UniProtKB/TrEMBL annotation:
This is Lipoprotein. It comes from the Archaea. PROSITE patterns: PROKAR_LIPOPROTEIN.
Length: 115
């Protein structure tokens, strides 16, 4: 009986070690949500999420650098805790855009102006 289960046990241990090692190398965590862009006193921009979490983006495109803009964002949190000199969590933005609440009219009607 032991001879038959030993190979299975060895395979299971190798697979478990691989899964554990794979989990240890994962240093990024994806976050997404809705938040408000806020310009701080020192001129930097942060995103205050609806849940109260403050994110400090590494870079923010010019269109989103407007104080009070509500945005949908998705990004990656590198390991390392807080941004230097800030109580906000650093984030590398992967996707960001103006947020339109569900049920709101998200379409723009263009009218042709005749000369």
């Amino acid at each position: 009986m032991l001879r038959r289960t030993a190979p299975l046990l060895a395979v299971a241990l190798v697979l478990a070690a691989g899964l554990l090692a794979g989990g240890c190398t994962d240093t990024e965590h994806t976050v997404e949500g809705v938040g408000t862009v806020v310009r701080t006193d020192d001129g930097t921009y942060v995103i205050r999420a609806e849940n109260g979490t403050c994110y400090a983006p590494f870079s923010l495109n010019d269109e989103c650098r407007v104080d009070g803009t509500v945005v949908y964002f998705r990004g990656v949190l590198p390991d390392g805790g807080r941004a230097p000199g800030s109580s906000c969590i650093p984030i590398e933005i992967r996707d960001i855009g103006t947020y339109v609440p569900p049920g709101e009219n998200a379409t723009i009607t263009l009218e042709k102006v005749w000369p």
